[in-house]
Design goal:
By secondary structure, this protein is mainly alpha-helical. It has one domain: Alpha-lytic protease prodomain-like. It is about 75% helix and about 0% strand. The protein has a two-stranded parallel sheet with strand order 1-2. α2 crosses α7, α6 packs parallel to α8 and α7 runs antiparallel to α8. The radius of gyration is 19 Å and the shape is elongated. Bound molecules: zinc ion (ZN). Zinc ion binds next to α8. The site of zinc ion has 5 residues, from α8.
Length: about 210
Amino acid sequence: MSPSDDKQRKPMTAFTRWAAARLIKDHDQVDSLGVRSRYGALEGWTSIVVNTLLFGVKISVGLLINSIALIADAVHTIADTATSIVVIVGFRVARKPSDREHPFGHGRMESIAALVVALLLFEASFELLRSSVRSTLEPSSATASIGVIVLIIGTIAIKELLARFAYALGDIIDSQALRADALHHRSDVVATALAVVALKVAGSASIG
Ligand SMILES: [Zn+2]
């Protein structure tokens, strides 16, 4: 992370601290596993709600203008709910107290959640690479009005805000699981941007 990256995220860091102080009980006790699991739940549930809304917009627009790239991106967006569930469950298991089989507690579950999220991100990056190669080889003929393109760019902006929110939460409690999910949201920004680039603007002279 470069210092300029840090500066970029500053307003969101301030907002996230403000939101955490209001929504999370004992928000400053970031070493407590119970408090950490509440941060994990905040990130996970926010991601699920935002991704479900973005799915609704993308699938409607994708079907309307018959864009395979956009429909595929919509399906990816709703599939990302699985990653958020891994985050929520990982933190929830981590806060369980130690028992006979796990005398040192379950704190390591948070690291395992980070690993699973990272593996899912790796898979998503591979898919992204594959679909961008495919769309380069066989450009889509889907056309979109300026209004539709602005709408999709709006979904990209919302996803970028979600990425910054997740990064900020990850920084507050110093969690690799939340940072990995933030990185995934950031990769989705790139994925949707590529789906937009694949569209032809309605009314403009077509080149191909
Ligand atoms: Zn994704």
